[in-house]
Amino acid sequence: MKWKKFRLKTLESAEDIVISALYDCGIEGAQIEDKVPLTDAEKAQMFVDIAPMPETDDGIAWLDFYLDPEKDDVDGIMRNVRAELEKLRAYCDIGAGTLEISETEDTDWINNWKKYFKQFYIDDILVIPSWEKVREEDRDRLILHIDPGTAFGTGMHETTQLCIRQLKKYVNAGTRLLDVGTGSGILSIIALKLGAAHAVGTDLDPCAVPAVSDNKKANGIPEDAFEMIIGNLIDDPEVQRTVGENAYDVVTANILADVLVPLMPAVARALKPGGVCITSGILQGQEPKVIRAAEKAGLHPVETTQQGEWMSVTVQR
C-alpha cells in the first residue's frame, strides 16, 4: 500500500506550535528533522551514535507526516492544515510553511518513534515506556509508565515538565483534578500517583481515549478514578455541564496561549474557591496576555515558572 507523504518546511522555533496544529487537524504523528545540537542529556537518552561532524544549525525544521489515501480524507485534512498554517502566521513566524508531496511504501512509521523513546527522569520521577524494565535502583522512585500512542504527551517536553513540577506543589490527598487537553493522560496519572482522589480529562482528539485507557492500565489506575470527555470545554455546553462547576481543586491546561485566553472563563467556573489552575504551553513573552485573561475571569496570578523558552503560569480563584 502507498502512503501520501507530506514534508512541511518551517522553523525550529515554531516546531512545537506547528506540530500542535497538525494534531488538531487529525495528523496522527510527525517526524522532525532539524540541525539543533543535542544536549549531553539528550545524547545520554538516545542510545545511538552521534555523528562526529554535525551540520551547522540553520534554524530550519522539516516535519514529515503521512496519510492513508484509502482511509483518510486527504483533501479535507490538508485544507484544514493549510488553513491552520495561515492562522499561525498571524501571530507566529513559521518560516516558509511550504509543503512537498510524495508517495512512500507502507512502513510501520506510526510506531517508529518507539525506537527512540527511552526512559528518562523528571527530577525524582522516572518516566518509562511499557517495553522497558525498571532498574532495581529505580524501584523506590515514583514511576510513570507512559506510551503516548498517537496522542500527544510523553513528558519529555518542557511544557509538560513545568506542569508536573507545579502538580507536585499543589496536589495532595483528596485533590480533584481537571486536565484540559489531557492527550496521553500523563498529567492526570501523575496527579493520581501523587495522591489525587479523582481526575477528569478533556480533549478534542478521539485518539486520546485509547491512549489514556492504555496508560491507566499500565499504571494501575482504577477505571473510575480517571474519566475522559471528548469535546471543547470553551464553547460546548454539554462538555461544560458534564465537567461541572465549583468542582476542582486543581485544573491543568498545557495548551498554547491563544487557546488559554478564551479558556479562562470556563476554568474559573470549574474551580472551587481557592483552587488553582496550572497553565503551560506559553512561549516566553506571551504570559502577560494569559495573566490578563485570568484576571478578567476573576483569577489572580500566584506563580510564573520557566524552562527554556516556555512559561507556566499558575493562577488561583
Number of strands: 14
Count of individual domains: 2
Q: What is the class of the largest domain in the CATH system?
A: Alpha Beta
Unreliable stretches covering 5 or more consecutive residues: 42-54
Q: What is the name of the CATH topology of the largest domain? A: Rossmann fold
Radius of gyration: 20 Å
Biggest sheet overview? 7 strands, mixed
Taking all residues together, what is the mean pLDDT? 83
- Helix coverage percent of residues? 25-40%
| Class based on secondary structure composition and strand pairing | alpha/beta
What's the multimeric state? single chain
Report the total helices.
9
Put the structure in a nutshell.
This protein is of the alpha/beta class. It has 9 helices and 14 strands. A hairpin with a 2-residue loop joins strand 5 and strand 6 (125-128).
